[in-house]
Design a protein that fits this description.
It catalyses: UDP-alpha-D-glucose + 2 NAD(+) + H2O = UDP-alpha-D-glucuronate + 2 NADH + 3 H(+). With 54 residues, the chain is α+β, with helices and mostly antiparallel strands. It has three helices and two strands; from the N terminus they run H-H-E-H-E.
């Protein structure tokens, strides 16, 4: 696994449900690299904003 892949995978292994439960609502995630699983985070309840997407 390359260095960039390691960086990307570390964000995918977070316990997003636990993070969501601890946040004020609405809970926003700003994905500056557009590497997160949009459907998964939206299903949890996050408002996901991809930065740099048209």
């Amino acid at each position: 696994m390359g260095r960039n892949e390691v960086r990307r995978s570390q964000f995918r292994t977070y316990n997003w449900t636990k993070i969501y439960e601890a946040m004020r609502k609405p809970a926003f995630v700003f994905d500056g690299r557009n590497i997160l699983d949009r459907k998964e985070l939206q299903n949890i309840g996050f408002e996901l904003k991809g930065i740099g997407k048209g």
